[in-house]
Amino acid sequence: MKEVILDGKLMTTKAKLHKEMKNKLDLPEYYGNNLDALWDMLTGYVEMPLKIIIINFNVCKKALGDYAEDLLFVFEQVEKELDDFILIVKNELKDDKTRSQDFCDIFYTDRIDTNSVKWDNLKETFGNEDLIPMWVADMDFESPEAVRIALKERINHNVYGYSIVPESYYKAFINWEEIHHSYKIKKEWIRLASGVVPAIYWFINAFTRPNDSIIILLPVYYPFQNAIKNTNRNLVTCELINDNGYYKIDFDEFERSIVENKVKMFIQSSPHNPVGRVWSMEEQDKILKICKDNGVLVISDEIHQDIILNGHKHIPAATVKDGYYADNIITITSASKTFNLAALNTANMIIESPEIRQEYDDYIKTISTSSVNLMGIIATQAAYNYGEEWLSDLLLVLEDNYKLVKESFNEFLPKIVVSPLEGTYLVWIDLREYVDRENIKEFIEDKCGIGVDYGEWFSPLYKGFIRLNIATRTTLVRYAVQNIIDNINK
Prior knowledge:
Blueprint: H1 10-24, H2 29-33, H3 35-42, E1 52-56, H4 57-64, H5 67-81, E2 86-90, H6 96-107, H7 117-120, H8 122-126, E3 132-133, H9 145-155, H10 167-181, E4 190-193, H11 196-207, E5 213-218, H12 223-230, E6 234-239, E7 241-243, E8 246-248, H13 251-261, E9 263-269, H14 281-293, E10 297-301, E11 329-333, H15 336-339, E12 347-351, H16 354-364, H17 374-386, H18 388-412, E13 417-418, E14 426-430, H19 440-447, E15 450-451, E16 453-454, E17 465-469, H20 474-488
Parallel strand pairs: 1-2, 3-15, 5-6, 5-9, 9-10, 10-11
Antiparallel strand pairs: 4-12, 7-8, 11-12, 13-14, 14-17, 16-17
């Protein structure tokens, strides 16, 4: 399929296709007279600067029977004649295992010598450039095809000046949240940031003062701790309850810590990095009630919201109890984890409360912030509009990779505790039954040849744990797991 950069001639394309469909197809009378309905049923067409026609051939075949082949032929002929759209034909008849393998074969790419933090910063971080990197939370897979096409289109314009955020960007994000997470967002609630971590710093400075207390649940993504300490706030921690690898919230301890320390803010990780929990409605109801009752503002980092595995469902904090707590929550999310766009520095902040929104807007005027990332906006919009099938296949890969880790250790090293992976692509592993916690770094790096995030980075109580990034091809995951098994069994 050739990649055609489009110039937005929507009506010309659509009229041309309608004409060709009428002239060349002996369609049933209903479809002949209702081509718009046929178009909407068979395509994934979305009106935006990038024009792509996505045909699900299985749906087409079911709807039109023997006419499907003729219809596809017409679309292909029109594509050759016009330069203002791209035809992508999808076939979903493959089984999940085949789709998973195909995804790895098509999208896995070598990242060495691309200035990748994950691959090219090993020597600086670990002192050894020959490790297999399974640490930084990005993926070794190319982003969806539509993202690459959209970026090429904009790059070919050759002018990269200051840019505004188009309405189509907000529409894409709002639609994604409603369709995938049942979260109905209004445009006026949305603010943009260069990333989740910068946004957290902004919120800390906007809504708390030096020496105010901020609480987090440990073990957790360590930039949370850094942000609190670096802004001279008082770090208050509440350890999750570790029930043989399955983590629960200690609600009594959480509330006690809030009251005793006069906590002003709670920074939540949902889904939780690194323990892989997708918090339930009941769990979120309890913790959000504690925060609301005690005047604690909730910052909910939901960057992993789309990486949900094994039948679980992400529930945005602001939707809990039909939005009862929404006026006390700021949600931060991004397409960066979902579609591997981290370097494009684009995140969305959702602030429903008019009062909190005004307070944030007043604060942001006092600091120097850059304009939006042009390429990040373009990539995010294309990903939200056209990336659903790519994501669906990615999740199959992640489930396969997690299954490989879990089953291999269960079979050969049954005392290793692999936490259930409900969300994220980061597997939390307890090696303490086999590896001396004081020697964990030497074992993983020098003997196994792997670069990982270590448990004590997330909480001082978790030395002997590792976080393993499985968003890579299955052969690398198998290599890492086998090296751990072989070196423990020596």
